[in-house]
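We modelled the chain as a single entity of 536 amino acids. Its sequence is:
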Amino acid sequence: MLSTGEVRRGLAAGGASLAAIGGLVTLPTGALLALAPASSAGTLFDSYTLSLLRFTLLQATLSTLLSVALALPVALALARRAAFPGRIWILRLMAVPMGLPVLIGALGLIGIFGRQGLVNRLLAIAGVDHPVNIYGLSGILLAHAFFNLPLACRLMLAGLERVPAEDWRLAASLGLGRLSLLRHVELPALARVLPGAAGLIFMLCATSFTLVLVPGGGPAATTLEVAIYQSLRFDFDPARAVALSLLQIALTGLVLAVLSRLPAAEGSRGEGRIPRRFDGAGFGSRIMDTLAILLATLFLVLPLGAITAAGLKADLLRLISLPAFHQALLTSLAIALTAGLLSLLTASGILTAQAAIAERRHPSPVLRVFGRALSSLSSLVLLVPPVVLGTGWFLLIRPHADVTRVAPLLIAAINMLMALPFVMRVLTPAFESHRLRTARLAASLNVTGLARLRLVDAPILARPMLMALSFAMALSLGDLGAVALFGSQDLVTLPWLVYSRLGSYRTQDADGLALLLGLLCLALTALGTAGERRQP
């Protein structure tokens, strides 16, 4: 139970969060619409723009199909092999790419599949004259598969593990073979999660920036997001940037509308525990499952090992002592801390407002609309990608002030928006369970206000808040999208420093800096999860 004052403060906090997010998203979007030139229709439908749209959709579709196709046998194998040696560590390894800075993953893939990478060196030893070319569409697909295969695998594995134990026992008693089991048990379970998983991966690939910028390979392999960046950063063509940004918003809006209609994964209908499987006992089945798991593990481990090995070859002591590294480190930490704290404040405002609305048994129509608006904030954040937000704010501020002066705050705000869905995912269950456990007791003891915050809320919510803060900071530290528009000699973050070293062909320095950035992100993640009993 909440007091009247707590309800009012919760609603005010939610209103402030809604206004802040709405302003950060709608103001630049409105600027793009207002600044759209009369000739933008021609720009939207010229041959170059249509080629960008075709390639964006092509690479997103192929990346989604490749990620799902590669993840399917791995998920089936992991579901069958609950006792596979090291299975828990393989599942934890699959969480690493999801929290890894995208630029580091791209460099690791170049270290394995690039012109001088491990694969091409082995092909040269074998006498193959045509090396693997990671740049262009093939490199984009490979990079997207590296980051999205683990996501697809974990989602499909969760769907398979929700199949109740009695279904497996019934299948065993009926003597169903491999294909019959796949048709009648596994595919129906996967059908409940595959549409949503594929839609999410398509959305990530359609709005990808760094993974296209690094291995893209030129104009023939450019997406809308990269073209927006190039229009402002290199060509300084605001009219084209506006037209491309509006087209990108329309594309993401369409994808989000389709995603909202896809079926959600269902919960378990069975006994509520991990079921025992009776299939896959044959020698051939064991060999195929082991091969699928090991190949997927190698695909994830090799790029991580490559960036580690390449980074260790660099002169790390010299890099750490460079003034440019000190400046980039301090700038990155300041932006990341600001973004993390802002995301915590915004998420806390949303959650306290939702709790205040939940206190009303019969909320008014205004409160119901307010609650729906709070619930839809994550979709609003996903609607406008970081590069588009940055473009809108650049065009909005440029006529009135020096953009470079407010660039750090803008980058922190954009990073806050990108981190908000992850922060909400961490904090929502913690806030809800804490409210259910303590609300009535705190109300009966008349513990309210700052006393409740100090005695009741802080001891319990401190750990999930720290976890959410560390994840938000790690995400902000590894971001290249927002800083790509505003980076300059006076505003250099660690990802921008790595990218600039890579662009000036100082590859060894880039590898060493990437290793330092990865270690910093891992340290933040470890800090946030310290003391937690983690389960796959």
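As a brief sanity check on the tokenised model: Residues 265-272 have pLDDT under 50 and may be disordered. Residues 403-444 form the longest helix (42 residues).
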